[in-house]
Amino acid sequence: AEATARVYHASLKGSRPNWAFSGLKGRLLLGKDAVDAGTSGPPPGTNSWSFRLVDNTSGRTLWRIPILTTKFVYHVDRPFFHIFYGRTRRFGFRFDDDNEAASFYKEMTKLSNSWADGYVSFIPIDERVSQTPASGRKHLKTKMISLPTEASFVHVAHIAVNANGVEETSPGMDPLWNRALAN
User: Fold this and answer.
1) Does residue 110 register a pLDDT over 90?
2) Domains by residue range for the chain, with CATH
3) Would you tell me how many other CB atoms lie within 10 Å of the CB of residue 68?
4) What is the pLDDT of residue 167?
5) Residue 38, number of CB atoms within 10 A of its CB
6) Quick check: 37 pLDDT over 60?
7) Per-residue pLDDT tens for 111-155?
8) Is the Cβ–Cβ distance between 61 and 50 less than 8 Å?
9) DSSP 3-state assignment of 7?
10) pLDDT of 83 over the 80 cut
11) Containing H/E element for 105?
12) Closest C-alpha among 132, 133, 115 to residue 124
């Protein structure tokens, strides 16, 4: 698997990572290290797979990180931004092209079958760690709310205070609302 990408990193702590650009960009490669290709198997907790970032011009390796954890988690945060967890921090790949990012993820899925030796496991996107806050409620952002579609609004009740300061409500409204508003 390969794609043009930039490497970002953030602390493992906290539910909202503060991503920082590492300054590294180039061709991202996922592969098996040649020095380990002839061995019968990696020792427990390690393997010979790694991510390698190569300079587009010189071909020189700029960054390499072996996949050493026993539970390798890789997921798509955004179509162009993929995340995985290292021992001391989380890493993000910011892909230049969404199609390359999708192909990279597809290759990751295929390669995960070769990691069935129990030393490394691949967690597909729908089994990834939930991004729901500890309270159990999702954060709602204004950009997530769309305008209502035509004829989709149903008026349930009306509550108002008239010019004389008297509460006005729709007929048949639950009296609990009146008590809640009176407090």
Assistant:
1) no
2) 2-127 (2.30.29.30), 154-183 (no CATH)
3) 16
4) 78
5) 6
6) no
7) 766 655 433 334 444 433 444 445 555 666 666 666 666 666 666
8) no
9) strand
10) yes
11) helix 98-112
12) 115
Q: How far apart are CA 62 and CA 5, in angstroms?
A: 12
Question: How many helices (H) does the chain have, and how many strands (E)?
Answer: 2, 9
Whether the predicted pLDDT of 73 surpasses 50:
yes
Structure tokens at 92: 């993000």
Closest of 180, 11, 81 to residue 169, by C-alpha? 180
**Comparing C-alpha atoms, which of 154, 152, 157 is closest to residue 170?**
157
Long-range contacts (CB closer than 8 Å, 24 or more residues apart) made by 55-61: 55/26, 55/27, 56/4, 56/26, 56/27
pTM: 0.57
What is the spatial distance between Cα 182 and Cα 2, in angstroms, rounded to a whole number? 63
Give the E-state strand segments of the chain in sequence order: 2-11, 20-32, 49-54, 61-66, 74-78, 81-85, 89-95, 159-161, 167-169
pLDDT band at 169 (very low <50, low <70, confident <90, very high): confident
Q: Taking CA 13 as the corner, what is the angle to CA 8 and CA 19, rounded to the nearest 5 degrees?
A: 20
Q: At residue 26, what is the residue type?
A: G
